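Progress report, Aim 2. The chain analyzed during this reporting quarter is listed below.
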Amino acid sequence: NAIVYQYGTGVLKGNIDAELVSIAGKFDGQVLSEVVSIRSTGSVTGEVSYDNISIEEGAKVEAQLGKKKQ
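Predicted structure tokens for the chain:
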């Protein structure tokens, strides 16, 4: 499985299907992941499906969040 790290001033649009996703910049799209980490500098819009999630204080989340369907 893949691991995706999105850092700093980066902007990512699209769909991600990975074991681990860490977002520290801007992301717009769909995430399907076992573990999602949204850092304090992260900004997420779209849809996030996860098994486990952590959202740091200061992160901007305007996304639909939900547990992955088994």
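The mean pLDDT is 93. The beta strands are 3-6, 11-23, 26-38, 43-55, 60-67. These observations will guide the mutagenesis work planned for the next reporting period.
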